[in-house]
Fold this protein.
Amino acid sequence: MSYQEGEARLRRRLSSEAIILAKQGRWEEAEAVNRSIIESFPADVDAYNRLGKALLELGKFAQAREVYSQALELSPNNAIAQKNLARLSSLTEADAAPKGERHKVIPELFVGEMGKAGIVNLFDLAPKEVLAKVSAGNQVHLKVSGQYLIVENGRGEYLGKVEPKHGLRLVKLMEGGNEYIAGIVSAEEDKVKVVIKEMFQHPSQTGQLSFPVKATRSSRPYVRDNLLRRGVVEEESWEEVEYPEREGEAELLPEGFSIVEEAILPEEELTEK
């Protein structure tokens, strides 16, 4: 094995380790591994972005700003670093989550089942200072308030309401005993998307789909997580991709929803090529 091959193998191994730690929410360890990568490979932009994410989750916002700025020096058009610097402009150290509330990715939330999972938009959004505290992959909580379905972050802070055309149905099902989990797909100042998945269906609700489906001949959208390869769970992770319709095929899609499919790549796909 040549020296270059050995270096490349070490880089892949450490990058894979950093990704796994990020998915598990082990941010202190993820910080250490990514710093080790940067020490050996100072031009690794992905490692800078992963380190920035770890520092952000640890509430080390000043350090995160510095790291993302370094990423931009290496790659001036890097969208991940640009978005996170914009997000950090709305955060102060006081906004850091307590240690017990640090985020980890919940893979099962982002694997959809027909009729049981869908992506919804929120309206009547919280101020940007509150929305800046959440990012793609974070679990959120659903709360019924009258006829509205409210979405809150892990601290119980209001994020927004599920649009009524979907929220009304889900409220009725929740009041009937159904249980759901939810997570952020993307969060911006004026647009927030949340994936909601049915985890338990009350016997009284048998036969009632949480997300009614209908036949359609349009292209099939799905959500792809291309940034889990680098351990960066950001808005770019969730990308709608269209596939050409196969002749004579009618796809089943949730009415008014995008279904989540293949959101988490197999573990062997999470290493850099």
User: Anything to note?
Assistant: The radius of gyration is 20 Å. Residues 215-273 have pLDDT under 50 and may be disordered. Helices lie at 3-23, 27-40, 45-57, 61-74, 79-88, 128-131, 164-175. Strands lie at 117-123, 139-145, 148-152, 158-162, 179-187, 192-200, 213-216, 220-225, 238-243, 251-254.
